[in-house]
Amino acid sequence: MQGTEDKAAHAARQKRLSALASADGRDILALWEKLGIDPACEMVRGPETGLIALRGRIGGGGAPFNFGEATATRATVRLENGAIGHSLTLGRDRLKAKLIAILDALAQDAAMESKIDEMIVRPLQASLAERDSKRRSETAATKVDFFTMVRGDD
Amino acid sequence: MAVTGQVVEGGFGDPVFASQSVFRAVMDAMARPGTVQAIATDAMPPAPLNAAAAAVVLALADSDTPLWLDAELAKSEAVRGWLAFHTGAPLAGTPSDAVFALAANPAAVPPLTGFALGTQEYPDRSTTLIVQVESLTGGPVLTLTGPGIETTQAIAPRPLPGHFEVQWREINGLYPRGLDLILAAPDAVICLPRTARIGNEEL
Amino acid sequence: MYVAVKGGEAAIRNAHRLLADRRRGDRSVPALTLEQIVEQLALACDRVMAEGSVHDRDLAALAIKQARGDLIEAIFLLRAYRTTLPRFGYSEPVDTAKMQVERRISATYKDLPGGQMLGPTFDYTHRLLDPSLARDETVDEPERRDGDDTPAMRVSDILAEEGLIEADGEVDSEEVGDLTRTPMEFPMARDTRLQALARGDEGFLLALGYSTQRGYARSHPFAGEIRIGEVDVEFHVPELGFAITLGRIRVTECQMVNQFQGSAKAPPQFTRGYGLVFGQSERKAMAMALCDRALRAAELGEDIVAPAQDEEFVISHSDNVQATGFVEHLKLPHYVDFQAELDLVRRMRGEHTRRRDTQDNMPEAAE
């Protein structure tokens, strides 16, 4: 039912919201301040903290089961131009949730979208990738190299 | 789903206090079956939802309570979006999966025994049915008796689901299973818990 | 007659104040910060999150500080806090196959694809107390080596290629059981049982797991695979209409592989027990997997002969918040109950004495 344009827009929004939610709130704030804008906005809902019930799968890939909950915070804002933005992120960082919702609303404008992606989303993705790569290499250094001891003759 | 202003607007201005006051009104209405309890609310739902029915759902439903909508409500994207945003309640596929059910058209309410009626061990695992009505007065008079009613209580909501008295008697016969009914005019509600009986017979 | 007694307000108030003082301890020692607890007592936070059943490191640290390091008290605090929060919904199941692995070992295959990665483990330490930790000495940066980022293959998939192991595990019901929403009923489906085990007391599950190794429900377990690392949490946001990643959490997953000789219900093959726990909680994940397997006795047609196989016994007693509540309530005033028991014992004792006296007198009467 959705046009390909709609789908592409969804995918971009999904990637952006995911990258923002996965980042540290302090990093988002620092990059946000570099953006140097202060749009008027109204909180439609939140920021409010609740729980997400977490699911795993039996045996890793079988039937789903609940294995605990995690705190999460969400917000919905409306900008003066009527654009509405949402956010949902793990943890209890209310400022982070609010900033993500504002960024989500701002990014509905095409010019602003590329600016946000370039100045905020990409740097956050890059630092996450860097952190992952550091961890991966630290883990790799603990990989066991087996070698066989040859005993006896022949 | 399109995120429009219509979806995110019109919720409770102050969700905590508004939910509490609506909860109180519904509790009083359930405790004193047949009495008219005013619902003063700032909720402004998209049509055809009325304000009182919407306020009751906002106060009671959440992501743990599957919500069933009648055809008239279900076909409105605005209604579905508004309820999803403000309550988080998933939509129930069939009446028997519903913790809450909301009907805008009394004439089209499915048979009451098709809703979740609970089990003998857990009679509470049943549907609370909210039916929007035009008015809580002016309809045919029904006389209620039962717990919470000192002698009798007359009500005259209009319109009601078809063969309502017969259907309700059938619900009474299932006790402790059954369902609880909230009749919602735009500004007030009347409740019929499963213990309320229509008519004076068999006390 | 029943006389209601009121009192103790001042005593309780002062006890709270004394508790706060003792919690803080010597004021010349700097107070612990939550960051210190999160960073340096990370595994205590992990345990509190797992058994408190709420993933939030800062809250776990706060709970540990408030509880003076009493972890069960901290778990209790976190459980109490979670009841004040609304629930937004259920996540998509986390995909542990895509885990950003920080440790991954197998006791069944030496040369498994992806290799054995020890990670930050206690395993090969000598368990000798390290006096250097008593001072704040500089710690070396970890060694680094190029690693590849292809997801590590599961050990269960290796066995599955030969058809020698059962599938991942399905349950009959379409609806996922949730014991935080529905009262427990026995027998329990495996999904609900795993939820109970995931929040169960580590010590209790460890002891039960141990009992299965000592012959109480022998299940020949091997640690097929243990992996620790971060997984993405994805959630379908209704107002957006699609799922987004909400962030990452660290989890420990344990796949126990058990020899199984077959029964009327299943052919000889390897069966599995599964453990999935918040944080780096290897012992808990292993104990959970052992208990999961033992509790599948009925499903697999095994004789139920040991405590670890008794679902009602294990699940009903695994929650340490419930357990501590019921045990510790014995400290509360039971003055009236006890008065009644005291009267009863006095009366029985009187009757006992009278009966004995009568019996003592009987032979004389007969003569």
Question: Could you list some keywords that capture this structure?
Answer:
heterotrimer, B: 203 residues, alpha/beta, Rossmann fold, 6-stranded mixed beta sheet, 3-stranded antiparallel beta sheet, 6 helices, 9 strands, globular, C: 367 residues, alpha+beta, 2 domains, 13 helices, 6 strands, 17% strand
Description of the molecule:
The complex is a heterotrimer of chains A (154), B (203) and C (367). By secondary structure, chain A is of the alpha+beta class. Chain A has four helices and three strands. Chain A has helices at residues 4-22, 25-35, 94-106, 110-140; strands at 41-57, 64-79, 84-90. A three-stranded antiparallel β-sheet of chain A has the order 1-2-3. The radius of gyration of chain A is 21 Å and the shape is elongated. The model of chain A has no long low-confidence stretch (mean pLDDT 92). With 203 residues, chain B is α/β, with parallel strands linked by helices. Chain B has a single domain (12-196), classed as Bacterial phosphonate metabolism protein PhnH (Rossmann fold), CATH 3.40.50. A six-stranded mixed β-sheet of chain B has the order 1-8-7-4-3-2. In chain B, strands 6-5-9 form a three-stranded antiparallel β-sheet. The longest helix of chain B has 17 residues, at 15-31. Chain C has 367 residues and is an alpha+beta fold. Chain C folds into two domains: 10-82, no CATH class; 96-119 and 148-169 and 179-324, no CATH class. Chain C has helices spanning 9-24, 34-40, 42-52, 57-66, 71-82, 155-161, 190-198, 202-213, 282-294, 297-300, 311-317, 320-328, 335-366, and strands spanning 54-55, 87-93, 100-105, 221-237, 242-260, 269-278. In chain C, strand 5 (242-260) and strand 6 form a beta hairpin. Chain C is globular. Chain A binds chain B through residues 44-45, 76, 78, 82, 84, 86, and chain B through 3-5, 8-9, 11, 85. Strand 2 (64-79) of chain A pairs parallel with strand 1 of chain C.
